[in-house]
Structure formats: structure tokens, C-alpha cells
Amino acid sequence: MIDRAEANFFGRDTWHVAQKPHPVRALVLGANGKLGNMICAVFGAQAAPRLELHPVSRDGSIGLGWSVGQSPDLLPRVDAVVALWGVTPAHGAPLSDNSGLALAAMDLGRRLGADRVLHCSSAAIYGSSDRPLHEEDTPAPASAYGAAKADMETVLRTPQSGDGPVPVILRIGNVAGAESLFAALGRDGPVTLDRFSDGHGPDRSYIAPGDLAKVLEVLCTLPRNRLHRVYNVAAPRVTAMADIVRAAGRDLHWRPAPDGALRRVALDTARLAEVCAMPDRSSDASWLVADWQRWSGRG
Question: In the CATH scheme, what architecture does the domain 4-175+208-237+267-289 have?
Fold first, then answer.
């Protein structure tokens, strides 16, 4: 179990972490990205005695400097690699680069002695559903980004040569501070949401950056034989986007939802809960906003 100080930070003593006799060394790729910045801020401020973090950024602005194609000789030997890098539509690069980055992370993990590599996939690989989406559901992406992440997962399932690390795919829901709604909250003016025929706005599976950091700690330190190859990663209940806007104290405007807009995307997180049970408050809009403000420097 986690120590009392960490339990107080997360609200309840509900996180289950496998204790190891020495800290697990983890390399974090993409430390200078929006998500990587917040995750590294969490680990920099909160004690994680089971985890020794080694951030890596392409330009060396955070942690060690390294990019694909460079020699890994200057990087430390590690037990795990956390690949927070990736290409989104906002980057302007081909979305297919996600597959290449995933393979590069696997190769780097092998060279550095890691026994696992955690890869960031997305809830966007799923199709529309009225029920919570489970890891065993067949991917049916409705966007080019979701299709690119599904292709990345397929590449990672291709057997790797040798005795390298195992890939662990994280189908992450909306991360507070690293998606479009929170980008809108970071700008001035009212926030506009889609309104559906039932009179409500979108519901999504969210996770706060501080909670995601704890999930990463758990999956880096869990014995390898207990790891599943795919996890949905989110708080256990969906959160209404309108509640997030109101919790941030912002004006909310509505527009009719366009054809194809998704009313609800809910992830089934029972598999994750087996090893990492979320605090009750993790789905609360106020918690998501406060955690975003804390770790993005807006608090």
C-alpha cells in the first residue's frame, strides 16, 4: 500500500502499488510536451519512493536531451519506458508517425534494458457506444487520429524479435489540461459546447494529471507477470463537459451538435481498478479543474 503522505494527497488510501525493494527506474519520453510537462511536475513535487524518474526531451529543455536516430549511449539503464510522445492533429505531422514512434520506444527500451514500455493510445480508437467501452471491444475509430492510434496498437501487437520489453497500451481518456476543452478554458471568452437532442452536452471519461501520474507509477512498478497488455485509463465515472466549464467559473454557450458528434464516451475501467483503484473524487469536475490548475501552473 502507499504511504500515508501519498494517501492524503489523493484523498483516500485506495491506491494499490506493488512494493519493490529498490526504486524502479523509468525513462519518460516526451517530457517537454503538454502532457509530459504536467506529469513531470507531479513527480517533481510529490515523493514517489518506488520510482526514479528520468525525463527525456528532444531539445533537452526538460531532463536529458535525446531524439529518434541519436545514440542512446548517454541515457541511463532503466526498468521501464513511459512513452508520452505522439502526434496529434495539432502537430501538423503525419498521424502515421505514431506507429514509428511506438517502435522507436520499443527499440530504445530494449537497448536500455527495460522490461516494459508504456504507450499512450486513446479512447478515440473506440466507436460510439451506449455502454462503457471495454478493452476487448473491437476498435472502430471514427476519426483519423483514432485510426492512427489503432494502427499503432496493431504494430505493437506484432511479435518482436528477441527478449525485449513488453508493450503496455494505455487507452487514455480525456486528460484534464491536455485536450480541447481545457485548451478553450486556457483562453479568454466563453466556452462553446455541443448540445444534443436530449438537451445535454457531451459526457467523457476524464482523468486528472495527478491521477494519471499515479497510474503510471503503478504500471511501472507492478510485477511484469501481473500486467495486462491493454488498459483503459480514466476515472471510473464520466464527467459532463458542461460541469467542467462551470467548475472553472467560465461562461458557457451552446450550439447544436453536428451530425456525427458523440454524446457520450465512457471507458470501462474495471481492469485498471484491479491494480489501481481511483479515489471517489477523481471524476468530479472541480477536482479535474483544480488539478489542471495546479500542475499547469495556473493555480
Answer: 3-Layer(aba) Sandwich (3.40)
